[in-house]
Here is the input.
Amino acid sequence: MNTPLATAPGTASSALPVLPRPAAAEFAAALEHGAFSTLTQFGVIDATGDDAASFLHGQLTNDTQHLDAATARLAGYCTAKGRLLASFLTWRTGETIRLLVSKDVQAAVQKRLSMFVLRAKAKLADASDELTVIGLAGDVRQALSGVFDALPDGVHGQVDGDAGSLIRVPDALGRLRYLWIGARAQIDAHLPTLDAALTRVSPAVWDWLDIRAGEPRITQPVVEQFVPQMINFDVLGGVNFRKGCYPGQEIVARSQYRGTIKRRTSLANVAGDLDTVKAGAELFHSADPGQPCGMVVNAASAQEGGVDMLVEIKLAALEDGTVHLGTADGPALNFLALPYGLPTEV
Here is the structure.
């Protein structure tokens, strides 16, 4: 049985810093022209060895055994009770499988995964200091074409080049988005070219775009709070229901096929700032103020003011009444449309 996730002392699993609100020009650059950010909120775990793919296949919610060089996949890592400890973007580069993960949970998750390698020919290593993660949004294809020979067309398509890996991730507000992960020195050599063609913006803009794309991310405040369906990972392709066993698989599958998911993640905006609106904050419904009806999964400063959030919430709470942050008389949430549809629960 898997053991509880614990923060490794002296590691990078401390809380992520609260990023200041980006300037209006930074939001505008991503939406109207093209922008890029160095994404320090992420870490990278490298899995190597003959059994790396099969080992991860037996631990994560998605298929890594058949992960090819042209595709990236979302995946989750669950407890035996099906609750998410981490969310990843996974891809293969050469003989290495890489896991992009929130920096604040990386060390603890890597340590936990390593406990279960046992006799498998697999090794997990923190590659964060060797690599740089760049997020690009908007009209960025021309700038990227000077670095990569080809660009991935479909969402979660991937290309490898001398400068690293380029992965297309879901659009946000109709704008193209890419992740570029490469050796620090290689990316540093290209930064002057990017600066000449695009606007460098705060990584907080990327957090906001992730939220507007409807793609949740597990960070330390929400560890062990959700089964994958509660954060829409089944809809986003983060769960393979045909693969073999992994921790929590029975519960995740039962939730899927017995129609027991009565909670989903929705998109919302609320007045305030990130000093008061945080991941892990509870939500309360006007008709039932005595108990929480949901929780903030991710939050980021919004272009038009306030904070945009992905919130996990009882579906029944969306039918009528109002939902409030923190307490039943806290700020009311304004719900927005997700950029994708959700299945009808029965």
In short: The chain has two domains: 32-212, 225-336.
